[in-house]
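Justification of computing resources. Each target in the renewal requires a structure prediction run like the one illustrated here; the chain below, 374 residues long, is used simply to show the kind of job we budget for.
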Amino acid sequence: MMGGRLLVLLAVLFIFAGAGAADRASAHFASTGFSDIRVETQDLYYSLYLSEHDLDQALSIDGDGDGVLSEEELDAAGEALETFVSNYLIVTGDGKLSDGALEKIELTERSGTPVVGMTVRYRFEQPIDRYMVQYGVFADGTDPNHRNLATVHLGGQSIEQVLSPTNNLIQIKQGGDTVGAGDGKASWVKTLKDYTALGIHHIWTGFDHLLFLFGLLIAARSFKAILAIVTAFTIGHSVTLALASLGIFSLPASIVEPLIALSIIYIAVENVIGKSTARRWLTALLFGLLHGFGFAGMLADQLSDRVALPLFAFNLGVEIGQVAVLAVAVPLLWLIRTRLLAPEGRQHHKQRLQLGASVLIGGFGVFWFIERIL
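Resulting structure tokens:
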């Protein structure tokens, strides 16, 4: 009886937790913006790129409701877009505020995702020694998970910074470096911190990646098998993350995201039919290559020539976040299997638990697959 009640309880918790994850899945893939900031003596050019989904959520500019913005719809939204950038981008030069002029609106792509690009020119009457940029997009609580990968082009060099609702200031000194609020100077320490935090945030909000990993692990029979699976998955996604981020080889998100959903379905089916897990590490390695392209989605085409540190830090963050999740999930799985299930018929209960969890995992995979191909 205890085993049966536990299975029901776990199923209910899994359904509610997974439903919330599924509901937030779209936000995970659409909550990243990009900024290219070009600094000149008396001018600052800010090119902001936001996904069509994000912009429509904020301004409701998709007139026909087909989920795709057209040139005509952008033209009609010109005034609304001007107000948007005026409200959420604030630029000062030596303490003086510039209103900015929206010079260009375009439909384009970043990292394989359709985005709307908006270029704003901030003009000052005299040469500027220090610029201050405040990024306020979705900082009003609309999307607390929103991140923006900013690249500042200054004096022949490019410097990256990750912007978020709680880290939204960039200070730029002519002839110097780019820094975040309160830092004093731009440094490799800040880049390491920003991109490590971005990697942790990405995996913790990457419910499809975590669900895939959980699907791999629930059928593992020993700690050695778990270690082999996690190591293989890490190697796989690290390889393709580097290839895509360095611009050597990548796949568009329109292909990668449905395939990731299919990988979840595949693992779920393997668990249900009871296929041998002796070589599951190889499955983890191969699908890890696919998931690495998903991890790289936000970095591809964004990093400047100084790519090594941001790439290393982002991957480090992904691994830290993954280890943190496993540090909770693996002992919990062991506890359920060895302590909470009734001794009588324990093996039978383990099989039922694996079957029920796998069916749910597969269900989310089907949901995400349909969502991503429509």
